[in-house]
Amino acid sequence: MTVDVVVCGAGPAGRALAHRCLARGLSVVVVDPAPRRRWTATYAAWMSELPGWLDAGVVAAKVDRPVAWGVRRHELPWMYAVLDTDALQQSLDIAGAQVISERAVEIEPGSAVLESGTVVSGARVIDARGLGRSPQRAEQTAYGVIVDAQRSAGLEPLFMDWRPDNGANRTATRSFLYAIPLGGGRMLLEETCLAGRPALDSGELRTRLLHRLRSRGIELGGDEPVERVRFSVEGARPGPDRFGAAGGFIHPATGYSVAAALTAADSIAAGASASPLSARAVHTLRAAGLRALLALPPGDTPVFFDAFFTLPPHRQQVYLSGRTDLRGTAATMTTLFAALPTRLRRTLATAVLPRRG
Fold it and tell me: Could you tell me the pTM of the whole model?
């Protein structure tokens, strides 16, 4: 029997898509080796990115005007939402789907071959299996601890803090502090390597985080819950039936992808392409931006982000959220390039422009 939609992968992107397909009355098969595994990562988004159909109860905490530090302090003029991961997973109900606990090993238009050799057929087969890791791919890594309000008292919510008080050598790959409320009086304090090839490992990030917190008068008890993050930020292949990280939804300048998947799920359930031409073009520009980030001398990373966070707010927002806004993305990158010091423009141009053989 051929169903309307086969979704391969039951992470946030795949589950959101299956949920929206079911809401439209479509017959759905979900294929995943562990479809009932509990999600443990922390997800966040700009409030303006969240679709209207999403249950408002999945927002655990809101931050008005979160702060970013390069060399200087910047207040970002948007509301930031931190999601309740358990509530998000439960709200994306897929009870009406046929769930197959297997791994899809080969996906073709109209069918998916499972590890057992079973072939599942669908009018549409969507690859939402995520993005595998590889030594050749740049990754984002992070090490964080969850503390109570007493320990984090006086620490303002931080979207990105590149100040050099984490004890790292100034010539080493830079990392930043991410500090956000999780609701219920808890706060996540996380040292993050935005992108590296190779990225900083968990041990180095832990050392930096502890040094940074001590320098700010925050002492840990040693029994705090820990979050470790590691995922690829490049290597995706956007296509009409590739969704989420597999389809290039990860933003290489932030690592975010869940909000983009939630936003796109409804239109894709209605039959739209997961990666229209404009999205593929934006993905190409963002890939160039990632090459630029990787080429930055460590000491200039805060300078780069100072320039970004002093752009007009609409320019910042379109680059952070405009997955299909080709004109806006190109305009923002051009404006940012012009705002950088000459020495950085030369470095970035060398990294971004195609090489001639």
Answer: 0.94
Q: Is 25 left (phi over 0), alpha (psi -120 to 50) or beta?
A: left
Is a pLDDT exceeding 90 seen at residue 349? Answer: no
Q: What stretch(es) of the chain map to CATH 3.30.70?
A: 139-232
For residue 245 the two structure tokens come to 């990280």
pLDDT tens column, 166-191: 999 989 999 999 999 999 999 999 99
Contact present, 93 and 20 (Cβ < 8 Å): no
* CB distance 79 to 10 below 8 Å: no
Domain with CATH 3.50.50.60 in the chain: 3-131+235-269
The two three-digit tokens of residue 51, written as one number: 């679709």
Count CB neighbours of 327 within 10 A: 12
Question: Which CATH architecture fits 3-131+235-269?
Answer: 3-Layer(bba) Sandwich (3.50)
Across 24-38, average pLDDT: 97
Distances (CA, A) of 285 to 9, 69, 248, 269, 303: 27, 25, 12, 26, 21
User: CATH number of 139-232: 3.30.70, 3.10.110, 1.20.58, 3.30.1360?
Assistant: 3.30.70
pLDDT in tens, 287-343: 999 999 999 999 999 999 999 999 999 999 999 998 999 999 999 999 999 999 998
Which is it for the CA torsion 273, 10, 282, 20, positive or negative? positive
